[in-house]
Amino acid sequence: xxxxxxxxxDEENIIREYIFLSLIKLALRRDRTVINITNTKFKAFYIAxxxxxxxxxxMDMRRNKNAIFDHHIRIxxxxxxxxxxxxxxxxxxxxxxxxxxAEWINERVKEYFNY
Length: 115
Hints:
This protein has three helices and three strands, in the order H-H-E-E-E-H. It has a domain at about 10-70 and about 100-110. It has helices spanning about 10-35, 45-70, 100-110, and strands at about 75-80, 80-85, 90-95. By secondary structure, it is of the alpha+beta class. A three-stranded antiparallel β-sheet has the order 1-2-3, with no helix packed on it.
């Protein structure tokens, strides 16, 4: 059981998803743009695959946004992977290392691409 001076596990999961799903969205947008301007043989297939992954990502982001609202969480970005979280009347600093972010993001992207 979490103390009042700690984030609960469900809150941590919601916050992690919020932060990392937005990074996946940026990556998918960039990849789609790059593939769209290249002379790739299967461009339409790649674009369709990215669009489908983006659709699933959007549904996850919508679900996450609802969870943030339901838990009354406010998230303020300080810099790239450093955030300030306001929940239950308290402020919690949350910071992730790039390696941790990359591992979580890679696992989630595999799910989006059915890898």
